[in-house]
Design goal:
The structure is a single chain. The protein is an all-beta fold and 391 residues long. The chain has one domain: 6 Propeller (Neuraminidase), CATH 2.120.10.30. Helix content is 1%, strand content 38%. The protein has 1 helix and 26 strands. The strands form 7 sheets. Strands 1-26-25-24 form a 4-stranded antiparallel sheet, with no helix packed on it. Strand 2 and strand 3 form a beta hairpin. The protein is globular and about 60 Å long.
Length: 391
């Protein structure tokens, strides 16, 4: 049964208990990785932060995305005197926010942001209910965004208020924009390739075509198809991919996909593949509940049950230098249990999966990095932590 308090990530909130300490339930005790969580920006009063980004422009600023429709920018984050925090963008007038799964859900800076000033957001709007993918730019020569500069790239009709996904990321190798979208609360959408829901999309924001404000990359898996499939689709079969992230070194795309009632999963996302929802939930059958046809489906590289949590929070591969033992590990966590793991992946198989921290139940919302690839996380209560070496 779902609890109203936690519908932000649409997870079954009967967590079935949770382990304590560093044991991850898979025999890894975390003894080789010792991390700490250091609160930064303690003077700020963030409201439901859902994303942490950097602009890649050499300033090492952090951008904190609030669900209600605000983006804040923090400068001098390592200053002993404290960071300077300012409003970067306020679009509360167009964001539909009801403290559930709606709101401002994602932010991505153009790879050439330093010269063109472009960035992109993913938010929900009402009347009619829809997801909006839009581009904004800076206000002249200032460091502040112009709320009147909006250019809408696409809108996706939302049948219900949940399962919006929301993350935006630029591919480090191809420069295309990837957009994570949930199934809109309708199971069948994820296997329906004539809709954009339940898929991760891939578009070219620099080369508009066919009367749209974006283009379709020629190597998208369904580009030019004659079956009515949406050409924007990069991969499909997702329920609610909450936080996608690339390995900046190898270009591997990871996502967490929030389960229904039994399993949470981590996927490596590849072109044209079907990730199974709603035929499967993780590695088990969902519809039908047994004997499902798994042919043609891509199974997760890892899934876990309610003994470990109830809402996966996808993260990123750590490529920083400050935290010993984390290099090359995929960092992810769980909202319900508050557990955080470091997962080793060699390109074919999971090599290890170690619990490295626990921050409290019903708290974790997102991970992010600064320009030095150091790691941060946010909590629903508004705290931002940096992942550091432990004592």
């Amino acid at each position: 049964m779902l609890s109203v308090i936690f519908v932000l990530f649409l997870a079954a909130c009967d967590s079935g208990g949770s382990n304590t300490g560093n044991d991850d339930g898979n025999g890894n005790d975390g003894a080789d990785i010792n991390i700490g969580l250091t609160e930064i920006l303690p003077a700020a009063q963030f409201q439901r932060p859902l994303d942490i980004q950097n602009a890649g422009d050499g300033t090492n600023r952090l951008f904190i995305v609030e669900q209600r429709g605000m983006i804040y920018v923090a400068q001098n984050i390592s200053s002993p005197g404290g960071a300077d925090i300012d409003v970067f963008l306020d679009i509360r007038d167009r964001v539909f926010f009801d403290e559930s799964e709606s709101g401002l859900l994602g932010l991505a800076f153009h790879p050439q942001f330093e010269t063109n000033g472009y960035f992109y957001v993913n938010y929900t709007a009402s009347n009619p209910a829809r997801t909006v993918i839009a581009r904004y730019s800076l206000n002249g020569d200032t460091a502040e965004a112009d709320p009147d500069s909006e250019v809408v790239l696409m809108e996706l009709a939302q049948p219900r208020a949940n399962h919006n996904g929301g993350q935006l990321v630029f591919g480090p190798k191809d420069g295309y924009l990837y957009i994570a979208g949930g199934d809109g609360g309708v199971d069948e959408n994820s296997q329906n390739m004539t809709t954009l829901l339940g898929s991760i999309l891939r578009i070219d924001v620099d080369n508009a075509e066919d009367g749209m404000n974006y283009g379709i990359p020629d190597d998208n898996p369904f580009s030019g198809n004659d079956s009515g499939f949406r050409e924007e689709i990069f991969a499909y079969g997702f329920r609610n991919p909450w936080r996608i992230g690339f390995d900046e070194l190898f270009g591997t795309l990871f996502t967490g996909d929030v389960g229904n009632a039994r399993r949470e999963e981590i996927d490596v996302v590849e072109s044209g593949k079907n990730y199974g929802w709603s035929i499967m939930e993780g590695t088990i059958c969902f519809d039908p509940p047994s004997g499902c046809d798994m042919s043609g489906l891509e199974l997760p590289i890892l899934d876990y049950g309610r003994d470990q949590g109830g809402t996966v929070i996808g993260g990123f591969v750590y490529r920083g230098s400050e935290v010993e033992g984390l290099a090359g590990k995929y960092i992810y966590g769980d909202f319900v249990s508050g557990k955080i793991w470091a997962l080793g992946y060699d390109g074919d198989n999971v090599t290890d999966n170690t619990q490295i921290a626990e921050i409290g139940e019903f708290s974790l919302t997102a991970f992010g990095t600064d320009e030095n690839d150091e790691a941060y996380l946010s909590t629903l209560g508004g705290t931002i932590y940096k992942i550091t070496n432990g004592d």
